[in-house]
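User: Second chain of the day. Same drill as before.
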Amino acid sequence: MNTKHSFFAALLLFSGLVLSHSIMAEEPAADAAVNDNSVAPAVTVSTPESVAVDQAVEAVTSASPPWTPPVIKNAGYTEHGADTCIKCHDEEEEYPVFDIFKTKHGQQGDKRSPFASLQCEACHGPGAEAKEFMEEEFAQGGHIGKVPPGKKRPPILNFGSKSDESVEKQNNMCLACHKGNTHIGWKNSAHENGSIACANCHTVHAAHDPVMVKATQSDVCYKCHKKERADFLKPSSHPVRTGLMTCTECHKPHGTSGADKVLAKPTVNQTCFTCHADKRGPFLWEHAPVSEDCTLCHNPHGSIHGSLLKKDPPLLCQQCHAPGGHPAVALTGSSLIGGGNPASSAFLLSGGCTNCHSQVHGSNHPSGVRQMR
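Assistant: Same format as last time:
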């Protein structure tokens, strides 16, 4: 485009902008704008066309009323987001929340975070009505943050054991974001079927979620699993109490596709073999209970018997093995060696069956058919 054409294009643009502004303004104001040279500088042929256009646009826009963003009515969200909430929910009140800014939930720069969009209201729902309710109570002398008896709580979604909302509604809010591979087994899991809310275990407004910290994870589980806590206090137990193991090394609290619905691996044995690989086999001479299920003989959480056994040998062994071939009755009194009973036997002293059948998990020895070597 040559210089002449460029100038006329700029002149037309300027004329259109001035005309548009004069139509929107009142007639007297329009006349004043035309007669007042200070509103828009004159454009001459000697001025470069680009400068003329810039001056024209600046003159017209500066004379226009300021632009204001559209107001979305009845959206239900507060105008200032988290700034509104923390006026009351500070570190001195009943529900401190500032630690959320130390977590992934409070990172504005991460588009996956609630604070990258609606902030507090991304999880707790629209808060405009609740804000008005609380301010009204405060103006009447009530304690802000407390719902007076007989009045309905504003529609704010609360979480945890004290929540007025159903467990399903609470969990659906969490699952709206947390729906990846870690949580894919949640549907029909043991915890979902037990009506366990995410907030019963997880603490969102905490710098360190207790479930995610090795030192405190077991305490969270013990709130419900009291029998397992008692088992871990027994003489023979996995080292959860000492902090060398966590519950989630064997269990998946969000559920799995396995038959047990809560084990880390599809079966009990696969879970155990994660650490006890030497018991996996394959063996030349298998011991049937080992191949079937480790918990037939062991209590994985703890036992008063050695090696997490459910009973001491020979009582444990005799649940499957009939007392034939050699004595299989515990020796006491006169039946002990030297007690005068010719039928006395040393087979069942101390370790009992394992005195001879030491390879109870399986044997690869050519002569190990009875797990004796």
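The first helix runs from residue 3 to 24.

User: Great, on to the next one.
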